[in-house]
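Inputs:
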Amino acid sequence: MKPDKLARMANDIAHNLAALGDAAPAAIAEHLRHFWTPRMRKELLQLIQAGGASLEPTVVEAARAL
Amino acid sequence: MSAPRVYVPADAAALSVGADAVAAAIAAAAQARGIEIQLVRTGTRGMLWLEPLVEVDTADGRVGYGPVNPADVASLFDAGFPDAGAHPLGLGRIDALPWMARQQRLSFERVGVIDPLSLVDYRAHGGLAGLQHARDTGADAVLQQIIDSGLRGRGGAGFPAGIKWRTVAQAPGPRKYIVCNADEGDSGTFADRMLIEGDPFALIEGMAIAGLAVGADRGVVYLRSEYPQAIAVLRRALALARADGLLGAHFDIDLRVGAGAYICGEETSLLESLEGRRGQVRAKPPLPAHHGLFGRPTVVNNVLTLTAVPWILRHGGKAYADFGCGRSRGSMPVQLAGNVRHGGLFECAFGITLRELVVDIGGGTASGRPLRAVQVGGPLGAYFPESLLDTPLDYEAMAAAGGLLGHAGIVVFDDSVDMAAQARFAFEFCALESCGKCTPCRIGSTRGAETLAKVSRGIAPEANLKVVEDLCTVMTDASLCALGGLTALPVMSAIRHFREDFGP
Amino acid sequence: MPLPKVIDYGTPLRESADTVTLTIDGRAVRVPKGTAILAAARSHGIEIPKLCATDMVEAFGSCRLCLVEIEGRRGTPASCTTPAEDGMVVHTQTARLAALRRGVMELYISDHPLDCLTCSANGDCELQDMAGAVGLREVRYGQDGRKHRTEAKDESNPYFTFDSSKCIVCSRCVRACAEVQGTFALTITGRGLESKVSTGSFDFLSSECVSCGACVQACPTATLNEKSVIEHGTPTGATITTCAYCGVGCSFRAETQGGQLVRMVPYKRGQANEGHSCVKGRFAYGYATHPDRITRPMIRARISDPWREVSWDEAFAHAASEFRRIQAQYGREAVGGITSSRCTNEETFLVQKLVRAVFGNNNVDNCARVCHSPTGYGLKQTFGTSAGTQDFKSVAQADVILLIGANPTDAHPVFASRMKRRLREGARLIVADPRRIDLVRSPHIQAAHHLALKPGTNVALINALAHVVVSEGLVREDYVRERCDLASFEAWARFIADPRHAPEASADITGVPAGELRAAARLYATARNAAIYYGLGVTEHSQGSTMVMGMANLAMATGNVGRVGVGVNPLRGQNNVQGACDMGSFPHEFSGYRHVSDDATREVFEQLWGVALAREPGLRIPNMVDEAQSGHFKGLYIQGEDIAQSDPDTQNVIAGLSAMECVVVQDLFLNETAKYAHVFLPGASFLEKDGTFTNAERRISRVRKVIAPLAGLADWEVTLGLAAALGYPMQYAHPSEIMDEIARATPSFAGVSYARLDELGSIQWPCNAAAPTGTPIMHVERFVRGKGRFMLTGYVPTEERTGERFPLLLTTGRILSQYNVGTQTARTPNTRWHDEDLLEIHPFDAEQRGINDGDRVLLRSRAGATSLRAQISERVQPGVVYTTFHHARSGVNVVTTDYSDWATNCPEYKVTAVQVTRTAAPSDWQRENAARADFLRRIERELPEGAG
């Protein structure tokens, strides 16, 4: 999947779960596990490893739990 | 001392024979002669052959002149007017005239007497005493007075008003209505109009009392568009009543004007029309008392029913019930019309016979020819032959004689009448005015007229009269409302009493 | 099946705990209080002649045939308008009554053409029946009286005629239009014998008539008659089945003559529609036998090749070998399937089974992805189940209805009629919609509040409503304490009480005045019963799922979940979109909404299917399109879904499809997607197969075969053929056996079987040991998830914003006569009402652009451009334009973007920044698409006629 699209999808999730505050990263991770294919999750991790500048910090934190 | 009062009716019947011109001529003559007068426009006394009837105050009471033409005005003044003076048109004391003296004017007591739009006059003549009494004694007492009075619906059906009011009073619901049926469409009737034009506050007071009795804070008057004068008077009266505080948040009245359909005088069609729909009869049940205007408990009463109420409250139900006979208590404003010498409004207690009314009071036919038939109760009323003229005028006696009292309109015919044509007219009237909802009325009225035409053309008269008779049974028993249901009355009474007219 | 007679009780049957007992013709009769004598008699087998009475409308009392005699009462009252009372003694057959009825019939017939033998209603005419019943032997009025026999016939409606010369003025049509449909298009003009049924317009087509068919249904004579009956004659057989249009799921009698479908008549006992219908289900079934139908399988190596007709076996073998090749070459995950919300539950179940058991992955999705996937997500999070809470009937007890982002009079007309009936009874309505839909104000309907919000600001709106509830002390605390998760409530209440959610603060975002919003919130919160109904205007947004949860929060906080008259109710688009979701057509869920990672559930299916199943979620439709473009996804089996037209950002979808190596399309028609397909498998319409559909109220209804499949196979049989060719034979002799498997594997369907469905008529799931006859209302004593959970719903503005280049917001919707992408309705005379998509634009915006009504305009977004004609309308607010998406040639989805709901990837169809300019020509895309269409649809016919 195109990295920018993947990033946008991940950030959308982060924005909508932002109200959870500290609980947000765990909720994001759960959402990704629940709805994303392993390949999409893997590509997200690759994106983070490659710098992932456009990603929300909570996404980056969530990815650690994947 | 204030200027002498001169009374000229502004009732539609008086206007139609030039009352305005007479009033103008009187005003002009008075001014020209430097005589100060107070011109008062009143309702009519109901003696239509005397209109325009001009009255003046005297020490003995009101004296009258009539019928007055504008051309007569100068000679009136020459004879000393507005002080009573001898004049060929002079009638003497109005209340001494036999027409007036023989009446029991309860509902019409102020009509023709007072300025209809003067609350001062109204109060001075006993107005609002009934409402005050109602306020003092409360709803239950009012209902009891109305029940005690024996007052029955004056629109034609004759249902006890007190029972209807009590039903509405007991019906649950936050909003109730008082609806006044002033869609006076019967031929030969004009009492509603005369009352509204001559004493509109009596109607307002009657409705306010009804509202108090049943717990309604809204009233509606449904007034036919053919009565522009009555509309104007009532509209003005309502405004005055509001300004006076007589009407307001506690009870207010809306004036709605009909659109020319006879059927809207039928109470359920009237409600449909008020709700903005096509004037079409509703099936009963539910009764309007339970499910009336906008689905709310509603009193629907005729003008004459409601205007009888202030008198009853002022004098007591018992006093009202002292008039009349049998189960027909109180008085009835009878309207004499058609081929009659003295036509007009004559209010009297129930029990008077048709003959007294038509011959003694009405003076027989206007044409001078022998009287042949009298139709009582409007276009759906029965035709009475001369032999039945001793029938007393009350609900039960009229029904027993095969007719109905209706709105107490009496139309007189002399011996030139073609009763087959009258019977056919009954069907044609029904065909024209049918709302078109139920089959017997919608199709039967037209078929009836067609079949009677065949009879008149000599086409199988016996067989076709049997068809008409069968049709009349179907219309009587199967019609949804009184329009189709009563059409058989004029038709069959004409056939029964005047069989000789049916044939080529 | 022979034509069964449907009993007409004459007046509506009443429901009441109180009963009355009376005697009719010597028989003791007990009926619920309020029942008219006519229905009381008929329900005990006593038939009283009648013409103006029919049980679909209230009694009217005009024909005067149903007169009876009641002991102790005067006269002969009509039995239709007289309520049965305790102790009444009624006689329906006396000499007096017989004479009256004959007299009335004699009048009727004196004004009726005597052409029974050549009349289209011959044998199906109540006037004829009554003349017989009352023993009419002569009409003594002769034939020369005034009549209506020369009245002109109105044939303007494409589906039925109005022949005034045969009219008996019973007003059944007028009353049906008012009471059942709620449109008030018909009236009676004139009076007496001149009384006539009128549309108040020139003719039916030009009138306000919505062609629902209620008047035709109500008519006792040939006055209003289906053209199909006039053409073919009276039906001789009938099959009860379920409509294949919207999610209302109306029950119909498909009436036939031999193998010919003559008409579709709404079925009175159908629990979803209770005898009502709309123009689509009632009349627009002609697509099923349209010449465009493809009835032979076809294959081609490349999409630039012409199609080649082949046998079923060759088609199956080709598709199977391609899928196996792709999986061998690109991996097991490189193929997937899309189930159809148009097909039956059984068919849907088989496709997902094929993907999971045969393809061995979870790459299965369905069109709920692009409509109500946020509903599934949001309601599951809050209530614990992915479906609406009520049955349709519940609306009859709602006192306040909050309608959000739905336009039921166009999109769910039969439900709209039920809703309108309740509104006419006095329920209050709040409409939240950017556009002034009909329900804001139409005959006898006026919304108490129209919250005309800006597109894309739903969540700000719902938060503001909730803020009023919380800050003004309108929370139903007892309910929340007892029924909901208190910790989640407290967190939510703190969140929502923040001043940034106050109506005054959000007014700038939503454009809704704070006072209006506060009044609406109070109205909703203080109602005895308040119900939320919503549509795609909620879900098809970047925050679709958040909004669904926001509505659920509001309903819980005000105690409006778990009884009749309340609830949170999605109005679902497709006939079986609920069912498709229930059947496990999601890449993360098995049937019954159980996640693929759940070992216990997987074990059930592994045992049943005899294969190991994948535990990781698969691709959703938009992901498939993206992954195809990335080279990871190569093969797709699409049953009954036209993603090239219905999914957003058409050019992106086409790029995805074009990147695949094997696209198998199973459909009635060579649709837009089939232009990019390699195998075409002919589908069967709902008339050609057995199965079940599940509607928006979770109601499972039978679909029954009315005619033989045109292509020889029903869709479920096609999937069986494909599975067998893939080496996984599935053994089902009948769809009922598929349902048995579903029931075995799905707890919420455990009690469902065809036998049970035949017995009960229909069943609302869950249906199992705990609820043997199904569940009309959910969450009654406790929420499915235990305690209702409040979710925090922060407003996140969409990325899709207007600016200098694209200053207007486009939002889309549907129109009554057309359905979705027009596959069906565009192939019927429904195009008489709507033959092109129009762009509604506010006069202010139109004037700025020099656009006149009817001008062709170019509609442009960053995704693409199309052209269509403009309609200047104040139904839309300034800054917003609106269009429908029914016609392939306007291709509105070329303009919509690939933005989507954060949780489910449901596309953000409802918000696209656009520019509108006058144009003279079609857009580039439209030109190219039109040019390519014929090329991509070439068929090389090789097989002789009759083969295949």
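The interface with chain B takes residues 59-64, 67, 75-76, 78, 80-83, 96, 99-100, 103-104, 107-108, 110-111, 140-141, 145-146, 168-169, 171, 187-188, 190-195 of chain C (CB under 8 Å). Flag for discussion at group meeting.
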